[in-house]
C-alpha cells in the first residue's frame, strides 16, 4: 500500500543493467517518513545495486528515484544531504584515528565548530565507541568498523539512513545492540536496510520488501503473511482423502502432505473466522478423525519461501 503522506523515498520503474547483465528489473516502491523498511533477498538479488542507486553512487539505466524530493540523477548533491549510507563493506580511511575520522566526516556533512564536537560525542556514545576513539580505523575489529561506519552515518541527523547488511560480521551481543539502535531511530529517521538474513529483518523492520533476481516480489511481505492462513492438520487419512474432504470448504486453497510426517498436512487458506470449524466438520463428515488442528503463526519465512520457491534448507 502506498503511504498516505508523501514518500521520502520514491522509486519508479527502476532498472539497472551491468553491461549485458540485468541486476534490477522494473522496481517501484515508496517509503513514508519514519518507516523502517527491510529489503530482503538472497545473495546477488540486487539489494546493494538498489541502494547504490538510491544514494547516487550508480545511475539507473532507466526509471526514476527521488529522495526527500530530490532526483538522484539531476540533484545528487541534494540527495546526499538528505541520505546517509552504510555500505556493505564499511570502507573507512584506515590511517585515520576513529575520532579524527568522525570529525572529518562531520565536516563533509557540513557540521562546523562546536557543533562538530557535540555531534561526534553523541554518535560515539550511541555506538559505544569511547574505547576505540584513539585507535586507527585500520586496526579495528570488523564489528567496531561496522559500528564506526554506522556512527558516521548518523552524523548530521540525516532524514534517510540506508544500511546495507548492517549486522554482518557482528557478534550476537553487537547484533542485538545494533538492532536496538536501528529500532530507536524509527520516527526520527527513515531507515532502509538490506539483509539476506530473514529473522534479522523480521525483528527490525516494520515493513519488508522481497527481492529476487532483481524483481520486487512484494513491497509488504508481512501484510501478505497476515492475509494468509496456514493450518497444520493431523489426521488419520491419505493425502487424497484429506484433499477430497476439504476441497469444498470455502476459503481452502491448497492441501499438502508433510513429507516427513505421515498423517500431517498443511492447509493453506484465506483468513476467515469459521474456517477451522468448517474444516473439522468436513473431515468428520468424511469419517476422517482429526487429531490436531493448529494455526501456524504467519511468518516471513513462509512468505519468502512461497515467493522464491527455494528449498527450506537454502533460506
Ligand atoms: N559492478 C558490477 N558489475 C557487474 N555486475 C555486478 C556489479 N555489481 C553487482 N553485479 C551483479 O548484479 C547482481 C546484483 O548484485 P548486488 O550486489 O546488487 O546483489 P545483493 O543482493 O546486494 O547481494 P549480496 O546479498 O551478496 O550482497 C549480481 O548478479 C551481481 O553479480
Ligand atoms: Mg549486497
Automatic annotation (TrEMBL):
One of its GO terms (molecular function) is ATP binding. It holds the Pfam family ABC_tran. Residues 9-238 form the ABC transporter domain. SUPFAM superfamilies: P-loop containing nucleoside triphosphate hydrolases. Gene3D superfamilies: P-loop containing nucleotide triphosphate hydrolases. InterPro entries: AAA+_ATPase (IPR003593), ABC_transporter-like_ATP-bd (IPR003439), P-loop_NTPase (IPR027417). Keywords: ATP-binding, Nucleotide-binding, Transport. PROSITE patterns: ABC_TRANSPORTER_2. Belongs to the ABC transporter superfamily. Involved in beta-(1-->2)glucan export. Transmembrane domains (TMD) form a pore in the inner membrane and the ATP-binding domain (NBD) is responsible for energy generation. This is ABC transporter domain-containing protein. It comes from Bradyrhizobium centrolobii.
